[in-house]
Amino acid sequence: MTTTPDRIDELVAAASAAAPIWRDSDAATRATWLRALAGALDGAADELVAIADRETRLGEARLRGEVARTTGQLRLFADVVTEGSFREITIDEADAAATPPRPELRRLLVGVGPVAVFSASNFPFAFSVCGGDTASALAAGNPVIVKAHSGHPELSRRTAEIAVAALDGAGAPEGSFALVEGREAGNALVQHPLVRAAGFTGSVSGGRALFDLASGRPDPIPFYGELGSVNPVVVTPAAAEARGDELARGLVTSFTLGAGQFCTKPGVVFVPRGSGFVESVAAAAHGATGGPLLTDRITEAFPAGIAALEADASVRVAAEGVSGDGARPVVLVSDASAVAARPEVLLEECFGPVTLLVEYADEGDVHAALAAVPGSLTATLHSEPGDDVAATLALLQERAGRVLFAGWPTGVAVTWSQHHGGPWPATTSLHTSVGATAIRRFLRPLVFQDAPAALLPRELRDESLERTPHRRNGMLVLP
Amino acid sequence: MTTTPDRIDELVAAASAAAPIWRDSDAATRATWLRALAGALDGAADELVAIADRETRLGEARLRGEVARTTGQLRLFADVVTEGSFREITIDEADAAATPPRPELRRLLVGVGPVAVFSASNFPFAFSVCGGDTASALAAGNPVIVKAHSGHPELSRRTAEIAVAALDGAGAPEGSFALVEGREAGNALVQHPLVRAAGFTGSVSGGRALFDLASGRPDPIPFYGELGSVNPVVVTPAAAEARGDELARGLVTSFTLGAGQFCTKPGVVFVPRGSGFVESVAAAAHGATGGPLLTDRITEAFPAGIAALEADASVRVAAEGVSGDGARPVVLVSDASAVAARPEVLLEECFGPVTLLVEYADEGDVHAALAAVPGSLTATLHSEPGDDVAATLALLQERAGRVLFAGWPTGVAVTWSQHHGGPWPATTSLHTSVGATAIRRFLRPLVFQDAPAALLPRELRDESLERTPHRRNGMLVLP
């Protein structure tokens, strides 16, 4: 079912008409709208989880957790709106004595206008219709038009119905939220003259195509895409020695979580040769259970991806797990010199329960391979206190937006400081949809010079400043 | 003189080698480097102004002022670095009781890596070799490679020599700063694998071409371009009545400043028909002096631009000024319905001392024309306290990044709150090079999860937090 061009025009026109109302809404009202949306989704969790499980086969436990995460995310953004720093209010008082004399300037951030959001297949709630892109775009004061993912169409429609009703019930304007379906509809959205920005989570090829459309417009718009990530892990010899079995079990749990369909799955793990770590992982993986993959396309691509890796002369299978009525977990082993020589083969992201262990002999060996690792969302370093890891850490920091020193990259805490992004191809931009600063993607600066108080937006008037963190003449002021 | 591809490779490789040193430099060191650069330029002002005047003919008074503005800008960014908020340090403490348990996250912004800066013709200091793009990129912790503008090659070379010596003398690493020349060199810069971002001030066509190269890379990089702007002004009937002559004189001073070669020149002014305002402007313009234009290309384009406007049946010449050994100021008059019907003809930016007065009959008339005004850096509203300007202001806010309620848009105060940007074609991005937040363009987020204190960047360690504004568990904390 593809949304027709006429219908897209109607929906975008309604969003554009609603945009000034969202932009000018005060913090309390906007927070109420976000919380109403969260409440409605929580209230419909039983129904939504049942549909989601049928369409994605991710299982009830995981899906219930994901609903909670999604509504928690909406409420976090309600808090972000209420706290007020996101407006970045900055005041410079007039200075007649300066050369040249300085006018009074009052600056804030305001919503950019209608935002197109592209849902992901692998998080039918948290990165989908009412996921992080939608939450942050609404919080920034913008109507949202979501392109549904074809992997969960019924869930998308039902979630959108609930969202429209919740926003309407809370008093948000008509046109605040809409859903479109079909690839052509998505292409039309990023090219529509009234759409001002887009957020995307998906494949490198799909994201690149939409990024090119957005950038190729007569008036280019920002396109915030989260695409692909291999999420390198380095285990030092000391860490393998001190806690190899524990790390091996953690790795297996992480790379098989959600049947290996997380964008933060540890896809390539550098391990010391001869440390026994490969054998520990193999032992842990023997009992590991895979599961059904999300879509037919992913189901077909998984064995093809494994086969492409296995075709490399350096690669051998270290272990296979249990299929669990779907994809069987696989642990592959290669070596650092092969990865450094053929990164385009060995470091291709493979969606599903597989990880590639890369044996290294020494630091030079692992560094040469790390230099070939593409930009990733995360990088993980398992070391011991005595290790000299400065050079390794420098390489990992260059390649990822989040560096972990304990645990595993799957599981992305939704907090003020979180950052879900990294150099290309992890993302097309500095930010994506997780963490409080995701809101900044959908805001634009606006400065008022020598404005009479009556013509200032409410947030920039003196009486509002008393309640809002802001900067005055270069100094931060807290309420 | 075009920099060869081999030489570009050398310079970018040196910048890339210097990048980690800049990124990891502490605030005090980085501020010292910026102040050393400012001091060296101030010290060489006599020599530099003489070269600049020969190459640009902008006159000594203007050029001395521009040097002061440029070095003031470098010092402002030293202050921004010292103040520390630009790092956006955010800490979320671990929470073992959360579902799922939350790790400790520590976030900051770090430099993106080597930045390419494209100089403008019209500000040989403030938007050129050591201008706002360079100042903000260095402040963010990045080496810079400048593409010189062909309009002032000798000044560019001498400024770059001084910059390299000043940075070297202050202890900055080799590769911190470099200059390249020639259009092909500029194209090579935005496509170079080791260049991570670009800043540009110039024409719509030139900026678009470079934006397309940056976006079309295998790994797209952000391109922050300031392109073209007509800077609409609206004068209400009450304002024309109350202070028409004063406004007319102010307008003439503004549109002829720097021979009309400012990106913030008021290019289109909506005036009430029959108010006498056109006559007031004509009177003020008769004695106004133009001057030589910056380059042969601009000198040739100016009469062609005027001719294109005059060719429209709605346009007449209201006044001409005195050439001043160069371009003669011109005041043209059209009407709002013609502008609404043919914006592509009447709202084309024309660099040089010309402005278009657009007569309107009523609010509907001016609003229809305003809806056709392209995105601009500024919009100005001259009204009186009794005026109902809500609808007009809403239209202006949609079209510009800075809205003025007194004075004229030329002259851009370099302060914490300033914003120099607007919807396409004013800019390709939300930010450009003026104001403290220009620094954010050249930073990327980096999060450390559960890191041992010894492996954290210095700025994220507990002892540094005591001295730096930061956010902890969602709350802003001041030192």
What does this structure look like?
- 2 copies of one chain form a homodimer.
- Chain A has 479 residues and is α/β, with parallel strands linked by helices.
- The first copy, chain A, has helices spanning 5-24, 27-43, 45-56, 60-83, 132-139, 153-169, 183-191, 204-216, 237-256, 277-286, 296-310, 336-341, 343-346, 363-370, 390-399, 462-465, and strands at 90-92, 105-111, 115-118, 144-147, 177-180, 197-201, 223-226, 232-235, 268-272, 316-320, 330-335, 354-360, 376-382, 400-404, 443-449, 470-472, 475-477.
- In chain A, strands 10-11-12-9-8-13-14 form a 7-stranded mixed β-sheet, with helices on both faces. In chain A, strands 15-2-1-16-17 form a 5-stranded mixed β-sheet, with helices on one face. In chain A, strands 5-4-3-6-7 form a 5-stranded parallel β-sheet, with helices on both faces.
- In chain A, helix 2 (27-43) packs across helix 6 and helix 14 packs parallel to helix 15 (390-399).
- The radius of gyration of chain A is 24 Å and the shape is globular.
- At the A-B interface, helix 4, strand 1, strand 2, helix 8 and helix 15 of A face helix 4, strand 1, strand 2, helix 8 and helix 15 of B.
- Strand 14 (400-404) of chain A pairs parallel with strand 15 of chain B, so a sheet runs across the interface.
- Chains A, B: Residues 4-415 form the Aldehyde dehydrogenase domain.
